[in-house]
Amino acid sequence: MITLERHSVLSKEISSADSRAAIVAAMEKLPAQFGFRFFTLMTAPAASDHTLSSLIIETTLPRRLIQDFDARRLLAHCPLVPLLKNMALPLCWSYDPASSADLGLNFPDAMTRMLKVWGVTTGVAMPLHSSDGSVFVMRLDGDRTLLALPELNELGMLFLQSFRSFDRLRGDEPMHRSLLTARELEVVRWTSQGKTSVEIANILSLSDHTVNTYLNKAIKKLDCVNRTQLVAKAIRLRLIS
User: Fold this and answer.
1) What residues pair up with 42 in beta bridges, in sequence order?
2) How sure is the predictor about 128, in pLDDT bands with cuts at 50, 70 and 90?
3) Nearest CA among 130, 141, 1 for reference residue 10
4) pLDDT for 102-117, tens place per residue?
5) Sheet containing 56-59: which strands, arranged edge to edge?
6) 185-218 residues labelled b (16+ CB within 10 A) or e (exposed)
7) How many Cα atoms occupy the beta-carbon half-sphere of 119 within 13 Å?
């Protein structure tokens, strides 16, 4: 498909999305259209964040890849983290040492080797600002060559258009539900059933550290002081039953 046709088809599908599920489905088509494999929408990482899994809102990345990444504590050593909140345009990079050096990036060898096993040698990402001031990141990962400038410009427009639709549809949801990610709701639901962090970690194939991170974020978002209050408030707000 030539660029104009591709852009027209994707833009029309994004514009017609009338639910969060529909816009996510449209965004998940971006990787294949641009030669990548995976799509991710995530909260922009801060220096205090330690796990990728706690930041992800929507992704097609394999769960095992995310678990492997977090088990190695690679987020703290990723050179992209300090850049993601300040970029105005999409940034495309390669994990190849020579190419990444040209961009002033120094990816740890452990990260490069791990991602290569999963068929990830190239990525592109763009920071996006929501109506409430929060910063998110949309990214594609795969094993293609670096994007040319026209492709970067086209993808940047699609990133912006799709995120605006996502942010609008997210704003139409009940306020408290839109605050919690699907994973946070899942962890809160298991907590309400009396499961410990270790038990939830086993059920969801996560680390107990990651489970605790989800719970602490949910506690903060719902303005609670502990898990007991979190569960009670989540039930009262009909986030869980």
Assistant:
1) 56, 137
2) very high
3) 1
4) 888 999 999 999 999 9
5) 56-59, 38-43, 135-142, 122-129, 91-94
6) bbbbbbbbeebebeebbeebebbebbbbbbbebb
7) 9
- Point out which residues pair with 138 in neighbouring strands: 41, 126
Alpha carbons 73 and 57: distance in angstroms, whole number: 19
C-alpha span between 31 and 137 (Å, rounded): 15
Q: Which pLDDT band holds residue 99 (cuts at 50, 70, 90)?
A: confident
Dihedral angle sign, alpha carbons of residues 82, 46, 78, 161: negative
Q: Does position 241 have pLDDT exceeding 90, yes or no?
A: no
Q: For residue 140, what are the β-bridge partners? A: 39, 124
pLDDT of residue 145: 95
**Poorest-pLDDT segment among 47-56, 73-82, 186-195:** 47-56
Q: Helix 208-221 vs helix 227-236: angle between axes, to the nearest 10 degrees?
A: 60
